[in-house]
Amino acid sequence: MSGPRQGSSQPQFMTSVGQNNNLSNGPGTPLIDSIDVDQIVIPEKNSWKNLFSYIGPGFLVSIAYIDPGNFETDLQAGAQYKYELLWIILIASCAALVIQSLAASLGVVTGKHLAEHCRDEYPKVTNFILWILAELAVVACDIPEVIGTAFALNMLFKIPIWCGVLITGLSTLMLLFLQQYGVRKLEFLIAFLVFLIATCFLVELGYSKPNSSEVVRGLFVPEIKGDGATGLAISLLGAMVMPHNLFLHSALVLSRKVPRSVHGIKEACRFYMIESAFALTVAFLINISIISVSGAVCSADNLNPEDRMNCNDLDLNKASFLLKNVLGNWSSKVFAIALLASGQSSTITGTYAGQYVMQGFLDLRMTPWLRNLLTRSLAIVPSLIVSLIGGSSAAGKLIIIASMILSFELPFALVPLLKFTSSKTKMGPHTNSRFISVLTWAIGSFIMVINIYFLITSFVRLLLHSVLSTVSQVFSGIFGFLGMLIYIAAILYLVFRKNRKCTLPLLESDAKLGDAGHTEGEGSLGHLPREDISSMQLPHQRPASDLD
């Protein structure tokens, strides 16, 4: 590299360096052998002890299943229908495990994450649209984190909601502070926050004392009663699988140097599934606890009229006062601590998801602090405006709107994932079996259908209850349903479009990279862990000037 660059500071915008390094190091030289980074290397020896080396990404992913948006949906489900919708959480958690395992397998087998596969596979216009949608999903995910954190600060320190929204922007500084310690420390911190949330709600569960037999019945006996139960069940399902999580998980697994043999890849996929199952089980128990606490408190006989009215329209802010009145002041504080931990941990994972999305779709990276500042600002502006004008109740409704946006976005991440992992030209011998393909497409189709149903019914309800004139309602309905048709057509395009790029998994015995249809400079499949991925998390690396 040139001399002047040696003394230059790191730019705020940069392209991913994996491809250039591939060219300079030669097609047969693994990138990890050329760059001195603090990597997590998986031993070649076959042992269950290797599982500990894989633990970490699943906990970062599990945060999306216990973010403030899920808190609010769980609270409403318990308050309105007690334990009747617990079985939805069970089904959604099982489906989430299968889908997240596919995302992890895609990264492990191919050495590229989902956003990079989209960039390679789709035309430029399609790729650009998918990038915009993915970025909107990251921002929509950040809105509940901002509002949830603001609610938590209000519960703990009586800080106004709008001030709390501004304070959440300071989490950028916390993220910068954490980055200097590397990916392993970050994973441990997230795991600690997950278990802190679990501990808080287990304490709440112990004092609220829900009926155990009713809880078990709600878990294993499917039933939906009442007019609003169907909509709430759809919200629970839609909130369990997040589009940005699929990009995140497929990229996080690239921080490990996995043995590039058939057995090594299979072991990595198996251990990542076990690790994800453990992390998502903890998230599942937290969601069950939230619904059970809410159901037990709102079904109590000693509720006063005000608390019973709060139960009819429960949100994060009202839940604090409800728990305080029924279980005591300490209960409100415990809930606030759990909400704060959820919001802050979601901030970190959302930032990395946005980083991987930008790097993958555009081959462009921003420094993490700038990336965090950008996404957080886009989330803070609408949250601040709504909290100033409408107060806490309007801020709570904004969480529901953000959940609807995520439901809208999901097919544009889920369909490519299912297509890629079912393709022998991308996964080789590690492609999904026929059973797994049928199962995952059935799960994916079901989730997409209920999300489309949720969007259509929500739009119809919005029109029927709007203050617009009849003519305006008609035209709004026409344009709205025209948009729905375009939306469905776009999903069908992704479903029926045949994969055209071939990226077979690279093994150690392969003679060269990019053998499966790539031009020179595109073959980075064997370079695990990827330096351009790992450097987002591991800042202590040899300067680029030392690689000459």
TrEMBL record:
Please give the chief subcellular localization of this protein.
membrane
The membrane-spanning stretches of this chain are 51-66, 86-108, 128-153, 159-178, 190-208, 228-255, 276-297, 334-353, 373-392, 398-418, 438-462, 474-496
- Membrane topology designation: Multi-pass membrane protein
Biological process GO annotation list? Answer: intracellular iron ion homeostasis; intracellular manganese ion homeostasis; iron ion transmembrane transport; manganese ion transport
InterPro entries per the UniProt record, alphabetical: NRAMP_fam
Q: Where is the signal peptide?
A: none
Note the superkingdom of the native organism.
Answer: Eukaryota
The entry sums up its family as follows:
Belongs to the NRAMP (TC 2.A.55) family.
Q: Where is this region: Disordered?
A: 1-20, 517-548
Q: Which HAMAP family match?
A: NRAMP (MF_00221)
Q: Name one GO molecular function term.
A: manganese ion transmembrane transporter activity
Looking at the keywords, is Cytoplasm present? no
Any one GO CC term of this protein is:
plasma membrane
This chain belongs to the protein called: Metal transporter
Instruction: List the keywords (alphabetical).
Output: Membrane, Transmembrane, Transmembrane helix
Q: Where is this gene product found?
A: Membrane
